[in-house]
Amino acid sequence: MTWSPTFDAKDVVIQEDKRVFDGFFKMHRLTLSHACFERAPMTITREIFRRGNAVVVLLFDPIRESLVLIEQFRAGAVDAPGGPWLLELVAGMVEPGESIQEVAERETQEEAGITVKHLAPILGYLPSPGGMDEWIDLWYGFVDASLASGIHGLDSEHEDIRVLSLPAQEVFDLLDQGRLNNGAIIIGVQWLRIHYDRIVQEGVEVMRKSNET
């Protein structure tokens, strides 16, 4: 059986959308009514973070079979097991007028200090739809991991980012050990593991053609 949603956006009526906090994040209070499975429509009030669209990029070197990852401090992880310095994929928010590919290329340069070759989508998802409207587009791209080193990020955005290159198998081991603890890197690494042979072959061809031009 193929699943499809029982309802869609037309089955939601937003009665009020009020901004109640305007700081580093934006919080809105929504009053809305929505259809229910076996009862009349329900009216609720919920606070949600307005985050918008983000892009996450899985950076893979098919020649060295390595992933380029970043390590940075995350305030939301201060009380998390393992502490607030997380191993992550390169990511950034989509600003008005920008394409996903433009953001992926920009953030790879800003956060990892390297150029990405060949970008393609993996999937899109909602990381926390119970309280946030953020939509994440997860993409992958090929890079030369030998060029990935140092500390990066924008001072204007208070970024302090260490870039590192790890063998793919080592990253798979970290996943199995439960040491990858944010959704984007878990999803991206699982996807790479499932499609590994195909992505290596594709990447080797992309890098070969790139070196010929």
TrEMBL record:
Intervals of motif Nudix box: 92-114
KW NADP (keyword) present: no
What does this protein need as cofactor? Answer: Mg(2+)
Q: Look up keyword Transcription and say if it applies.
A: no
Q: Report the coiled-coil segments.
A: none
Q: Which InterPro entries match?
A: NDP_pyrophosphatase, NUDIX_hydrolase-like_dom_sf, NUDIX_hydrolase_CS, NUDIX_hydrolase_dom
What is an example of a Pfam family matching this protein? NUDIX
Q: Which reaction does it catalyse?
A: ADP-D-ribose + H2O = D-ribose 5-phosphate + AMP + 2 H(+)
According to its UniProt entry, the protein's GO biological process terms are: nucleoside phosphate metabolic process; ribose phosphate metabolic process
**Key words of the record:** Hydrolase, Magnesium, Metal-binding
Mind telling me which SUPFAM superfamilies this protein's record contains? Answer: Nudix
Nudix hydrolase domain ranges (all copies): 50-193
What biological function has been recorded for the protein in this entry?
A: Acts on ADP-mannose and ADP-glucose as well as ADP-ribose. Prevents glycogen biosynthesis. The reaction catalyzed by this enzyme is a limiting step of the gluconeogenic process.
Cited PANTHER family: ADP-RIBOSE PYROPHOSPHATASE, UDP/ADP-SUGAR PYROPHOSPHATASE
**Which protein family is it in?**
Belongs to the Nudix hydrolase family. NudF subfamily.
Which protein, by its recorded name, is this?
ADP-ribose pyrophosphatase
Name its species: Nitrincola nitratireducens
Q: What is the lineage of its organism?
A: Bacteria, Pseudomonadati, Pseudomonadota, Gammaproteobacteria, Oceanospirillales
